[in-house]
Specification:
single chain; alpha/beta; UDP-N-acetylmuramoyl-L-alanine:D-glutamate ligase; globular
Length: about 325
């Protein structure tokens, strides 16, 4: 696409109505100093110093903030938070983006999901994660489905995110979600589901190469080329019978549906890269494009550029704005 075509497409994002359901989290970044010479009077242990704390929406929340960065102004979040400081921060961040949180349920038995990411001398240390042992009750799940049912008649796009090993959407619950999706065929649905993606119907399923190998129970080559991705994608599509969006890291993206395939090579990017959240960027930009009536080829190009922006943002859960996408587009055209 030309720069003007990208701009014209993005202008259609502003009127889109998008919903995101799934595993919402916060990413908490901070710098840490572990050799301070200060010792706790109570424990006698050396005190660590933290600085520069910065929180951003993660997992399904990162999809939401990527939609916002792309210019999608009407977004609904459907999920759970706990009655804790991280839940309050998440809702605050949603509100600051103008996200509709009517169907973000406050659950006493739920711990807000958090990834803490301490950074020492530009290296991420061991995370401390919260909320990974959550278990959603059937009652809360029914309430979420009721909220989604209220949203769907007005939505253009629905994005489903399954991030955690103990997720909001289990394999059994995906069947209920499929039945609800089937009642609203006008809504374009994109799913990014790490463990239960093979159960989704009526949606485009986004997978990376490692997830594709996992779902098929096969070994992942050290360097999975386009032919491998196409062969495995054809096999997987016979099992799930949904369109596939296969992200291939720096090698590009592949799309497969009943009409054929489209692929795009990755951009040549220089310098250090950080791939955290790049898949969320691809999902958000692809979904926005499909909701706006773009072709798969246009969706691939936009998603490729948006991901190229975010992977160059180090130490953060990045997003890509139209301005940043256009700058990268022009640089890529110049260096091509």
């Amino acid at each position: 696409m030309t720069g003007s075509a990208i701009t014209a497409l993005s202008q259609r994002f502003t009127s889109l109505k998008a919903g995101v359901i799934g595993d919402f989290a916060l990413d908490l970044y901070f710098d840490i100093q572990t050799r301070t010479g200060e010792y706790s009077l109570e424990t006698g242990r050396e005190v660590f110093w933290g600085s520069q704390p910065r929180a951003s929406l993660g997992a399904a929340g990162n999809v939401v903030q990527n939609l916002h960065a792309l210019g999608v102004k009407h977004c609904w979040a459907i999920g759970c938070v706990g009655d804790d400081l991280f839940g309050r921060e998440m809702v605050h961040q949603f509100n600051s983006l103008g996200v509709n949180t009517q169907h973000v349920l406050l659950a006493d038995e739920w711990t807000t999901c958090l990834y803490t990411k301490p950074n020492r001398q530009h290296q991420e240390l061991n995370r401390i994660d919260f909320g990974t042992a959550n278990a959603l009750t059937d009652h809360l799940f029914d309430n979420l489905m009721a909220g989604l049912e209220q949203c769907l008649p007005t939505l253009d796009v629905l994005i489903i995110n399954q991030q955690f090993s103990n997720p909001l959407l289990t394999a059994n619950r995906v069947a209920a979600l499929n039945a609800l999706i089937a009642r609203f065929p006008r809504v374009r649905v994109v799913a990014d589901m790490r463990n239960v993606g093979m159960h989704i119907r009526g949606a485009t399923l986004k997978v990376n190469t490692a997830e594709l190998a996992y779902f098929l129970g096969t070994d992942l080559p050290e360097h999975p080329d386009l032919n491998w991705c196409m062969e495995q994608g054809i096999t997987f599509r016979k099992q799930v019978n949904v369109p596939l969006l296969i992200t291939r890291g720096q090698a590009g993206i592949l799309y497969m549906d009943e009409t054929g395939t489209e692929s795009i090579d990755g951009l040549t990017l220089r310098g250090e890269l950080d791939t955290v959240g790049a898949g969320d960027t691809v999902v958000a930009s692809w979904a926005a494009c499909m909701g706006a009536g773009a072709t798969p080829k246009q969706g691939l190009e936009m998603a490729n550029l948006a991901a190229g922006v975010t992977v160059q943002k180090l130490g953060q859960t990045g997003t890509a704005s139209l301005t940043e996408i256009l700058i990268l587009h022009d640089e890529h055209q110049y260096h091509a």
